[in-house]
Amino acid sequence: MKKIILTGDRPTGKLHIGHYVGSLRNRVILQNKGDYDAFFIEIADAQAITDNSHNVEKIRQNLIEVALDYLSVGIDPNKVTIFVQSQVPELCELTFYYLDIVSLSRLERNPTLKEELKMRDFSNKTIPVGFLTYPISQAADITCFDANIIPVGEDQLPMIEQTREICRTFNNLYGNVLVEPKELLPENSCCNRLPGIDGKAKMSKSLNNCIYLSDDESTIKSKVMMMFTDPTHLKVSDPGKIEGNTVFTYLDAFCKDEHFAKYLPEFANLDDLKNHYKMGGVGDVKIKLLLNNVLQEELAPIRERRKYYEKHIDLVYKILAEGSDKARNIAKEKLIQVKKHMGINYFEDEELIRTQIEKYGKNI
Length: 364
Ligand code: TRP
Prior knowledge:
The protein has 16 helices and five strands.
């Protein structure tokens, strides 16, 4: 069985360090392991439009931001095919047939979709049909490339589950033509959801609590210095809490033992620092300066690479165009296969044409 990896993002904003620890970092590791037959990353602009129909300009602007973020974290277009969903119209065609095998009530049971509908405050009457059905179109994104390994965060599990169901129903109806995908979750559970710098559950642009991959050095430092810690830890000598302390959550995601020798040699490692913080005697400025050093070290090369690509925007569009072409050629082949299984490849179906000729020929 071929190993085909596919994942994607909606281009609704610049990517932040939550995206980085939750998925981008893993993608680069996967890419460099080389243990796959193909690796696709989709910029899901059409999916983003399903609830941004009045704001396509936002998607248009953020397409390049997301592409810059990918390239700057080290995703290599020679190893990974980066493509733009809207430029592969076969995905719409495939979606159209999948729409016929999923019921409305099944869609409405999708927990991630339910959550999103609540967040966006759609009433039943104002939900765009395209938004409600985006999990079906995502199933097309995945199956069109025979992808069987889908690196995602936990929130995408219902989408993968629904994709598998679509595969089974479709294969039962028309014969074995779709490959069932499986999710690949991040190993380190602290990285599943990085909180915002204010300690709120999630980084989000609207809460203004993100550290972006494209933030400059001084912006990162000022964001770290205002980070939420333990509100009861007032004096350096007070005992401090680790749980819910955003600085420690970030250190869990980014810090390695060798950082201590370099930046904070009075402690052996993160556990040692945590123990002292809990006992009292470690101030918040100390842990924030450590985190700042650790983040700067990780993000500086990303920012450097970004600067290079920012000066070569035409090259970035070229990478996207070539990736989309490549994806489209694969998708075209898949559609030929799918339509053949469905029996709607009329003009290549010599058997069909011959029997029709015979049927009518008899009467001549
Ligand atoms: N729905 C995903 C998200 O919101 C993005 C996405 C689009 C995706 N197409 C995909 C993820 C295909 C995995 C596979 O993050």
